[in-house]
Amino acid sequence: MLVSDQLRIRPRLVSHLLPDPNHITMPPKSKAVAAAAAEPVAVEDLFSELHRHIEAGEFPQAVKVADQVLAAAPGDEDAVRCKVVAHIKSDATDKALAAIRAAERLPIDLSYYKAYCYYRQNKLQEALEILNGQEETAAVLQLESQIYYRLARMTDCLNSYEKLQKFKIDSMDLKINTIAALVAAGRASEVQAAMKAQKVDLTTRALRDARSFELAYNSACTLIENKKYSEAKEQLDLAKRIGKEELMVEDYAEDEIEYELAPVSAQLAYVQQLQGQTQEAMETYVNMTNKKSGDPSSLAVATINLISLKGTKDAADSLRKLDRLVEKSTAPNQLQLIESLEFKLPPRKKEALYSARVLLLLHANKIDQAHELVSGLLGMFQDSIFPILLQAAVHVREKKVPKAEEVLSRYADKRPNNSKEVLLALAQIAASANHFQIAADSLSKISDIQHMPATVATLVALKERLSDSNGAASVLDCAIQWWKNAMTEDNKLDVFMREAASFKLNHGRDEEACQLYEELVKSYGSTEALAGLVATSARTDLEKAELYEKKLKPLPGLKGINVESLEKTSGARHVDQAVKVDVPEEVKKQKAKKRKRKPKYPKNFDPANPGPPPDPERWLPKRERSSYRPKRNKRVQVRGAQGSVSKHDAAATNAGGASSKASQSTTSTKAPEPPKAANKSRNKKSRR
């Protein structure tokens, strides 16, 4: 398949919601308000009460007091702001937006709060449009970075974090989010340097002292991206231990602690899966999905990874598990996740979830449903590659390979800068269908992998299938030239030169092969290359072959062999006689002294009087023994329809027909015998 079944998906990186905008702790009202000049003490008392509610976290009561202030002093800016923020703190973003719309006529700039409400409602584009016209303050940049993170625009997200550096904000949340953005952007290798610049130590010992659950978790995710699984597991265990201790201090119950730490459990299982500990990982996934002990996104991750471990085994059960996460949209050919996942899973995990569902439908031979789902995904993810790959996979399953090749080729032509995976898939499909020219052309379009050994080997094999030895040699020459100019530690120039020389030697390009072998000898001093140079030069330049032949080290044990007489022989002969080996006398004596063990007899057996020998056929079944005589059945069974005559009786009747007349006188004198009772009973039984 084009998309691997081994869907391995990590739980989301901890990216805390930045502090709610302007955590307002209002002092008692001191300025005079024109609308409340008659009762200044009452307004000040209301602001004092508003301040107490905000400090106590009683935000619904704060909204009521803010309304009282606005009734006494209409249009008061501080009261309006307090009311909006109190609604946001109460998770009543709709009411906060209503309060913002009600204050549009007032000379108060509430656009930041409006953008924040849209962010909370997952209306990310609307929120971003509002922020684009705002001054780049610290609060605006923090909210902007969070929006970019949700939209998976990691480059823009990191740019916002870089701009925040000039404000010199010493916030652990900001550092945690920076790590999350770097890992999500595929730049995990830069995390250590970035945190070192901010004086953050990510070693396990330092994280243990820092006592930060989120920092330890994100640091472990960085190690996973860098394929340091053992260290990542150690830091995940540390994060779980820190989180459990903090939650126990806050009097959380065991099931609540398990729920809160579900992302860490899923991530630990993922690390075990990467390390090959599939049984332990599967137990964790099954436990999470059965108990539903985790937030919806962690359970979704556990479900998908469990399906990836099971593979095609029990596809129907896996589909039922995924059906709990997906619901049909009201629009035709449109799908969406359940409400608890739609706004929480990032696009990358949504793609993996839908891909797993399409693959399971294909394995279950539900082609029509797979077609319907892929049609919806093409509309939902218009800028993504994975629906195109899934569409091609469906066509391949239907054995419509030309249609799959057409779909992939059309996408690659439209978006040549973002078609690497599509071209690789096209090459795989075409090669499997023996369309070698299409496969070779597809691989040739991916410029950044032309020098890689796997790509070069595949292209050479495809060119050979097409009987294009010149094209295959050109591929090898281009790879050699690339590695000559490459400044890398793991240089593979000698490997490519050796393979190219062998290829050209096999295809009659002796001079080119000789030149490559000579370069190998001069650059690397390889004995294998020297032997190849001598053998190749013997065909083209005998003097050069003799010159380099002198550099070959003589093999031990060949000095006394006459090469000319050996060449005249017909070769080695097979000798039937065993080779005689001289055995020392001491060894012979040791073998002679080897004592013989007495045989073990059955109980009560006298070897002096053994008695008659046992039957040699005693182990055979009775039917297979020579003394076996089967019992004869005296009753003659007559088989056939009622009234039929057996062949024996018929033959006897025919034989006696000729003498019937001669025996009439004798037979007439005899009285007929009555039939036997046994025959009567048998006839009666046969009539039943």
List keywords for this structure.
36 helices; two-stranded antiparallel ribbon; disordered C terminus; 688 residues; mainly alpha
| N-end to C-end Cα span | 67 Å
Mean pLDDT: 80
Report the count of strand segments. 2
Estimate the helix proportion, in percent. Answer: 55-70%
How would you write the strand order of the largest sheet? 1-2
What count of helical segments does DSSP give?
Answer: 36
Task: Return Rg in Å.
Answer: 45 Å
Shape: extended
Strand content: under 5%
Main sheet makeup: 2 strands, antiparallel
Tell me the structural class. Answer: mainly alpha
pLDDT < 50 runs, ≥5 residues: 1-39, 648-688
Describe the structure.
The chain is an all-alpha fold. It has 36 helices and 2 strands. The chain has a two-stranded antiparallel ribbon with strand order 1-2. The N terminus and C terminus are likely disordered.
Concise structural overview:
The chain is an all-alpha fold and 688 residues long. The chain has helices spanning 40-55, 59-72, 77-89, 93-102, 111-120, 124-131, 138-150, 154-164, 172-184, 191-197, 204-210, 213-225, 229-249, 254-260, 262-274, 278-291, 296-310, 315-323, 339-342, 347-363, 367-380, 386-397, 401-414, 420-432, 436-444, 453-465, 469-485, 493-506, 510-524, 527-540, 542-549, 563-568, 585-592, 647-656, 664-669, 677-687; strands at residues 326-328, 335-337. Helix 15 (262-274) packs antiparallel against helix 16 (278-291).
